[in-house]
């Protein structure tokens, strides 16, 4: 079956309006704050403006105030939103909220959707996804999960330490992964729990100082210490947490790629603008062969990453697991986007290093993407393992 690369007219129009909104409303705010929003009132103002522009929450269903876009349609719109570091926050499609909304819409009960998804989709609250743990706990290998949840009267008690929990500061609730059976290293036995921010057993320990700063709510260490939740807090089924995580992680990897592709395009546009106006050695910078090569390589990386993302999104829209396609797209995109921003900064020279343009901020923001959502090395290992399995299966008599 062929992959249709042409967006639906309705989607194309939404993408155009998103692009206009980002350039006219969001980028001025981004430039004033150096690409970082620390005041929640600013987040609220941006999201109110996105609602007024009709571009808010495009990924959730109409019953939750969104446009109900499938993955391929999201690719077009999310890239336009990602043209600014603050565009995803304004549209309420930033991590981790966007991935949490996607998962809640698919597996939450109707009561859980009413209590958690509806206000999250409206931008009334934020959320976090508490899976990653300090070593030797869950990280690149989720099966190393060591946080425990044990049955108590009328519910569950969660105990464990999480870290690098994005958006935890100010989140209205957490989706916590805890082991309900088996031991660390076992492939199953995890369960997801919805934990309200006011729960006395969930403590925000510290903000982790990181290279990136644009993801709202920071990256935190979180302690679950005698954290008791009722049975209704179980998201999905007991012991099925790892399976549900795949419902979230594959699409979330692709939406990260979509958003960062927008920043790659922005970096390229800044570099091309500089190359067109700056004169050196008797000609425009953009007429010099080495600069032209960097501009061309940027275009190639952006186009290739976009194509891989669309392929993976098409597989996800077909109901496939798309594990191989998402791993390939994520690994290539994370590295290609870094290359694009790095080359763009190089083209701009001293201007690129300065704070007069945001290329330095972009570089700091995109570098961790080669680690987030699975480091490139882990994805390459998984890609190669699937190839070997395919070979072994084909070789069997």
Automatic annotation (TrEMBL):
Residues 128-208 form the Acyl-CoA oxidase/dehydrogenase middle domain. Residues 239-387 form the Acyl-CoA dehydrogenase/oxidase C-terminal domain. Pfam families: Acyl-CoA_dh_1, Acyl-CoA_dh_M, Acyl-CoA_dh_N. Keywords: FAD, Flavoprotein, Oxidoreductase. Belongs to the acyl-CoA dehydrogenase family. Homodimer. This is Acyl-CoA dehydrogenase family protein. It comes from the Bacteria. Residues 14-124 form the Acyl-CoA dehydrogenase/oxidase N-terminal domain. CDD domains: ACAD. Its cofactor is FAD.
């Amino acid at each position: 079956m062929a992959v249709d690369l042409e967006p639906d007219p309705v989607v194309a129009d939404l993408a155009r309006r998103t692009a206009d909104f980002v350039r006219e409303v969001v980028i001025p705010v981004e430039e004033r704050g150096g690409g970082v929003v620390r005041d929640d009132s600013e987040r609220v103002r941006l999201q109110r403006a996105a609602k007024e522009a009709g571009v808010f929450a495009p990924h959730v269903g109409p019953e939750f105030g969104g446009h109900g876009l499938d993955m391929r349609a999201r690719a077009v719109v999310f890239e336009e939103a990602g043209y600014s570091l603050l565009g995803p926050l304004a549209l309420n499609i930033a991590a981790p909220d966007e991935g949490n909304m996607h998962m809640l819409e698919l597996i939450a009960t109707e009561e859980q959707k009413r209590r958690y998804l509806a206000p999250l989709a409206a931008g009334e609250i934020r959320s976090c996804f508490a899976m990653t743990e300090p070593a030797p706990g869950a990280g690149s290998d989720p099966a190393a999960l060591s946080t425990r949840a044990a049955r108590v009267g009328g519910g569950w008690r969660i105990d464990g330490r999480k870290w690098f929990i994005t958006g935890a500061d100010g989140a209205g609730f957490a989706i916590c992964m805890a082991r309900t059976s088996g031991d660390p290293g076992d492939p199953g036995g995890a369960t997801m729990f919805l934990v309200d921010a006011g729960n006395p057993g969930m403590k925000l320990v510290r903000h982790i100082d990181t290279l990136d700063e644009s993801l709202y709510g920071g990256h935190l260490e979180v302690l679950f210490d005698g954290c008791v939740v009722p049975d209704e807090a179980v998201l999905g089924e007991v012991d099925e947490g790892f399976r549900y995580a795949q419902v979230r992680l594959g699409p979330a990897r692709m939406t990260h790629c979509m958003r960062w592709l927008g920043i790659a395009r922005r970096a390229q546009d800044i570099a091309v603008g500089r190359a067109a106006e700056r004169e050196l050695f008797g000609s425009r910078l953009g007429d010099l062969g080495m600069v032209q090569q960097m501009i061309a390589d940027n275009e190639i990386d952006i186009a290739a990453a976009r194509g891989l993302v669309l392929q993976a999104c098409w597989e996800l829209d077909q109901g496939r697991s798309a594990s191989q396609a998402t791993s390939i797209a994520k690994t290539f995109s994370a590295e290609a986007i870094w290359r694009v921003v790095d080359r763009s900064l190089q083209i701009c020279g001293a201007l690129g290093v300065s704070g007069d343009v945001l290329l330095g901020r972009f570089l700091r923001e995109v570098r961790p993407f080669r680690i987030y959502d699975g480091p490139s090395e882990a994805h390459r290992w998984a890609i190669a393992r699937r190839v070997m399995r395919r070979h072994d299966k084909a070789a069997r008599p």
